[in-house]
């Protein structure tokens, strides 16, 4: 421990430093909603792990926003179940429960499968899905496991985007950000994410071929397999952490 800082302290300092680069995204109208969007994206990308305390001073300084604006952003993300406020301690990234995880997958199955089912005649707008698949394959080749997880989430966000509904897109951004909180505690992200790369491409190829029904069946089976695998592993991991 150098200079009184732990490895976790140094890691969080680096995260806040990267966050300063997002300041330009706020433009001239620094609203709480935009701050919440940035922090939500950072959670989805894996920068803020479950249980991490979010410093008002550091984040507000990095983004150049007032304390009131930041607190309103925190309130919005607390409402989305991404953050929790602990009295006299501050704001922390939420730790998801096993019951939460099962419910997340219930919502995903309802929304993602419906998005595919609602597609009209081909060709379908699958450009964002294709970009996410390619990004995932690149991340796998580079052994960038956090990026692989992010690419997988982007793929599913793109699946929902097929519905062309801004409200559904917004719903899924929160759901997938919450799911990312589960990925942080997995011992072997490569083993979890890598098999689904092939399945992502299979779904994409069915949609490119105009086979929406086949794509929906693949997606439904994919989500159930993922839920079973992740729920079991997550329950074991949480139990180990709690000393059960």
TrEMBL record:
GO terms for molecular function: DNA binding; DNA-binding transcription factor activity. InterPro entries: GntR_C, TF_FadR/GntR_C, Tscrpt_reg_HTH_GntR, WH-like_DNA-bd_sf, WH_DNA-bd_sf. The keyword Nucleotide-binding does not apply. Gene3D superfamilies: GntR ligand-binding domain-like, Winged helix-like DNA-binding domain superfamily/Winged helix DNA-binding domain. The keyword Signal does not apply. Keywords: DNA-binding, Transcription, Transcription regulation. Residues 29-96 form the HTH gntR-type domain. This is GntR family transcriptional regulator.
């Amino acid at each position: 421990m150098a200079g009184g800082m732990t490895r976790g302290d140094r890691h969080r300092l680096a995260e806040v430093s990267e966050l300063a680069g997002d300041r330009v995204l706020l433009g001239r109208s620094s609203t709480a909603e935009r701050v919440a969007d940035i922090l939500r994206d950072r959670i989805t990308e894996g920068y803020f792990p479950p249980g991490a305390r979010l410093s008002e001073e550091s984040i507000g300084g990095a983004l150049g926003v007032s304390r009131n604006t930041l607190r309103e952003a925190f309130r919005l993300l607390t409402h989305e179940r991404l953050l929790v406020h602990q009295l006299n301690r501050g704001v922390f990234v939420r730790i998801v429960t096993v019951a939460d995880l099962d419910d997340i997958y219930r919502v995903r199955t309802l929304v993602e499968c419906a998005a595919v089912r609602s597609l009209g005649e081909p060709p379908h707008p699958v450009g964002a899905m294709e970009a996410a698949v390619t990004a995932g394959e690149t991340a796998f080749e580079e052994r960038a496991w956090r990026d692989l997880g992010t690419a997988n989430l982007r793929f599913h966000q793109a699946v929902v985007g097929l519905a062309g509904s801004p409200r559904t897109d917004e719903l899924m951004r929160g759901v997938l950000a919450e799911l990312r909180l589960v990925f942080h505690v997995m011992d072997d992200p490569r083993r979890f994410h890598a098999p689904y790369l092939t399945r992502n491409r299979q779904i994409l190829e069915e949609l490119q071929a105009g086979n929406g029904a086949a794509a929906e069946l693949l997606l439904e089976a994919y989500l159930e397999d993922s839920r079973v695998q992740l729920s079991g592993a997550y329950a074991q991991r949480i139990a180990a952490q709690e000393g059960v």
